[in-house]
Design a protein that fits this description.
The chain is mostly helical. Helices cover 61% and strands 6% of the residues.
Length: 687
Amino acid sequence: MDSTHKKTEKGLTLEEKYVNLTDQLSSVTERLDHAEHDLDFERISREDIIRAEIERRMAEERKKLEEEYAEKVRQVEREKRNHEEMLRKKMERHEADLKASYANMTQKVIADACRQIEEARQKAESNGIAKMAAMMDSFIKAFIEMTEGNIPEGQTLLKQYQDAAKEAEANLKEELKVALDKAEKKAGKKSQHIESLVRMLFTQKSERFIMKEEEREPLLQSVIESLELTDKEKEDFKDCNKRIREYRQRKQDAKLLRGEKKGHGRNPIPDTMPELPAIYVYPECYYGHEEEYRIVHTDDVKEVIMPAPAKYFIQQYIFPSIVRKDDPYDKLLKHPRSQGVTWKSPYSEELRSQILTEKYVFHIPANRQIKRFKMDGLEMAASTMDDIIEGTCDIIEPLYRLQHQRVMKAMLLAADGSPIPVLDNEKHKTVKQYMIEYRSIDTGIPVFLSTPPMEGIKGVSNGRGRKIIEANLSEWTGQALMCDAYAGYDWVKKAGRVLCRCDAHARRKFESALKENPKLAKVGMMLHQQIYAVEEMIKAHEKETGQKMTADEKVQFRNDNARPLWDTLRLWCAKEIIDLTQETKIYEAMNYLLRHYDELTAYLDIADMPLDNTERSIRDMVMGKKAYLYCRNYESVDRACIMYSLFGACKVLGKNPERWLTYVLKHIDTTPKEDLHKLLPEEWEET
């Protein structure tokens, strides 16, 4: 019973504890709800406070920004008003200046017009006809007075008539002299033009000038005596000429010792030339009676060169497709030439090379080649010929661009150009374009550029103006440029590079004056020969020793031997030009040398710079334009630039242009872009 009672008490205790815990839990839950409610209320209150604070601060910032913006607007308006006021004042000043300039110009024009009218009136009054009219008027008045018996008045008028007659005679003589001088100058210019044309068409164009040694020495002595030179200058000049004279004598002695004769005889027939079967030529009596004669010997043999009976042949190429026997995929293989750059054309690479070589090396126009093909049994249309030339030039154009880049990297560059006529179908006549050659002096390799691509430059025509030359040389970073005296190259000197003038142009002017003034022109030509002899001495020394002079040695040699000659030539020109008239050729020659003296002598201090710009490098282009007269369009000029550049490189390097072009056409499509430079004439080697 006690245990039951204890259990009952224990159960009641647990129930009480459970009830207590439930009450406590409810109390805690209630407190938590109150706390969460308080937190929510507090959070809402804080958010309202923060939002209100943010809005207040934003309102303050907005107000401040609006005030700043309004101030800036007012400032901009003030600046705008100030700027407008300044512009207005400036325009007013400008308008006032214009009005003043206009007024001054008007006054000047009126003054010039009045002056011209007065000069014309005075000239009209002073000319011979006006004087004669006044003279006749005085004579008639004197005659009337004498007839009417007024002798004193008639004598006075007669005296006026005599004075007017003398003045009219003097004026007529002066006017006649002026008219004759003007006609003489005009006739002289026409005579020079005719003389130049006759020389160009019918006479020798060579500028070769031969002077004997016994004639040279007195002229040199007269030059020294005519100039006021110091003793040292005279001694230097004599030493230079002595060394040149000794060099010429050694050269002449060596030539005599070698036994050199004029001409070289007939060249032998090459052993590599194929031979045809021999043809036996018997006496006429032998034919039909062969059994009556016997052959004694066959030592009398004559060899002649015969043209090939058939110049063109058909060469068939078969390109089999093959498959490796162990290839499970049966991949077809074929020679790459079957898909070459000319594989669809029946005209071989060899024929293409021959056509372009004959056009741009041997100057045979396309229409003449077509006629010759027809004579050899090969019919070719003019359009086909154009396609061959155009297509071939397009193929090798990347090589032209590579060569252009290389030439423009040269430290020393030479420039020369020549006009080339281009047919203008709209104007129905030819217009003048220019092809300018830039040549690396180190390698001698040229690149030709045409002017039409420069048409986009503002203010530039198709000539060779300064802007075109600047555009052509935009990639050049070299040291010195050799060119003629064309003003379009003058910017090179202002750009900080050395500008050298070609001495051949200076010498040529003296040569053209030989007929007009042989006494002075001979001296100029002789001194130029002495200067050129110094360059010959340098080459002869290098040939004898087998090694080139160093840069310092060559510069020193030139300054020791050539500079005194140049100084003497300049002093002589400065002395003689004073007594010459500007219309003469000898004046033009001396004036040219004096004006460009610094550029003509700049080569003395640049070891590798030549004395002149070798114009033979553009000879092929000049001969070509004479042969085919004009280019059909601007694209033809571009193609000519490509071919003259690349064939010019072959000529300088002594390589066969036809074989080079054949090799390029056969291999350019299989050559990687990075290896294209190996196809340039400079790197190509004939195998």
